[in-house]
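FORM 12-B: Structure-to-Sequence Request
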């Protein structure tokens, strides 16, 4: 499938798939979306000294890099990706300059150059494990505090937004764990609720009216 690097509305790049008319990040602003959905409404509301994060759709590594930049807590980060982005595509992404994070350029490179299937110490407080597999092959239980659900949209890959997938997410989270996603589709919300989540609609990032945050609470 053909892939193109495009500039989004906030000046940051993303990968565009013309055949699907789909992007890895919002065309209204890749960096803005990452901060709004995953940092402000996910990472920043977890009050723990050590946080285990699962990213569904590791893609360009943008969410991982911003998490590194914005957190002073101990982060154990796991990224799931069935089709890793190629190195020549990574070289064309402008996240380091757009985030004014030149001092952390070596970290961005390390995020992408470290081997898959092994845990790596990216910094003193940040570990990363990238796993190349399909989302339906996730079988962890009570491991993660936070899930960044950043899969391609249901319009092009509806199989990634089903009750069965969200049941796996529910199982993977610790009690009181949180899942955040840019999606606000009614079918997504219903699948989450059926899987056991308490779901709330929140104001969305630029270009989207709403987003969803789901909480696992087995005490209810």
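FORM 12-B RESPONSE
SEQUENCE OUT:
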């Amino acid at each position: 499938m053909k892939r193109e690097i495009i500039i989004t509305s906030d000046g940051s790049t993303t990968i565009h798939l013309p055949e699907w008319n789909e992007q890895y990040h919002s065309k209204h602003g890749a960096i803005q979306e990452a901060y709004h959905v995953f940092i402000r409404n996910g990472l920043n509301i977890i009050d723990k000294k050590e946080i285990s994060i699962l990213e569904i759709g590791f893609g360009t590594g943008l969410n991982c890099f911003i998490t590194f930049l914005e957190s002073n807590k101990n982060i154990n980060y796991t990224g799931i990706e069935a089709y890793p982005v190629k190195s020549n595509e990574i070289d064309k992404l402008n996240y380091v300059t757009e985030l004014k994070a030149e001092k952390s350029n070596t970290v961005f490179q390390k995020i992408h150059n470290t081997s898959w299937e092994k845990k790596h110490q990216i910094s003193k407080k940040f570990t990363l494990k990238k796993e190349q597999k399909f989302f339906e092959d996730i079988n962890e239980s009570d491991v993660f505090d936070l899930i960044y659900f950043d899969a391609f949209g249901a319009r092009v890959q509806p199989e990634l937004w089903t009750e069965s997938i969200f049941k796996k997410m529910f199982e993977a989270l610790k009690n009181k764990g949180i899942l955040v996603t840019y999606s606000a589709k009614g079918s997504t919300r219903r699948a989450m609720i059926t899987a056991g989540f308490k779901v709330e609609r929140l104001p969305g990032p630029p270009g989207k009216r709403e987003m969803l945050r789901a909480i696992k609470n087995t005490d209810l």
